[in-house]
Amino acid sequence: MFGRLADSNAMAQIMYGLALRHGWGITPDPPLAITYLSQAASNSAAVESAALSSGMKKGGAAKGELVLAIYELANSFRHGWGVEKDPVAARSYYETAANLGDTDAMNEVARCYEEGLGGKKDRVSVCFLFL
Fold first, then answer.
1. Helix 87-99 crosses helix 103-115 at what angle (to 10 degrees)?
2. Each residue of 71-96: pLDDT tens digit?
3. Rounded CA gap, 69 and 80, in Å?
4. What are phi and psi of 9, to 5 degrees?
5. Phi, psi of 106 (to 5 degrees)
């Protein structure tokens, strides 16, 4: 079902990408999952940009999809699902999603700082994330 809707709907693109990544009801295809997650992020960003350009101060309806797509791309880079493992990219995507308000991403950023994933360990920054 998500595959049929994934041409034009960001949430369907995310869900289809996750189904492809994990093999939920279909044959797993992690590289194709990256394509759909990237499309979802791009489409959601375009919707948010248009909303901000039209005068909406906090963006539009696609912010949730944008943040979720970015977070799931971070997970893909962290674990090497459909792409080569890239801890620097994972940390960058987690930081972006966290800056957009995603609490799961905030936890992952803290873990990156604590473990030194994708950069130097920084336990001071970990503390500030939880204030």
1. 140
2. 999 999 999 999 999 999 999 999 99
3. 16
4. -120, 120
5. -60, -40
At 128, list the tokens: 């500030």
Give me the residue label for tokens 């791009």. 42
Please, are residues 57 and 50 in contact by the beta-carbon 8 Å criterion?
Answer: no
Rg (CA), the chain: 15
Sequence letter at residue 67: V
Q: What is the pLDDT of residues 55-66, one digit of tens each?
A: 877 666 788 899
What is the pLDDT, as a whole number, of residue 2? 61
Give the alpha-carbon dihedral of 115, 130, 59, 93, to 10 degrees.
0
Q: Are 34 and 76 in contact (CB under 8 A)?
A: yes
Residue 129 corresponds to which tokens in the numbers above? 């994330």
Q: Mapping DSSP to helix (H, G, I), strand (E, B) and coil, where does residue 7 land? A: coil
- Predicted confidence at residue 130, as pLDDT, reads 66
What distance in Å separates the CA atoms of residue 129 and residue 109, rounded to the nearest whole number? 8
Task: Indicate the average pLDDT of the chain.
Answer: 89
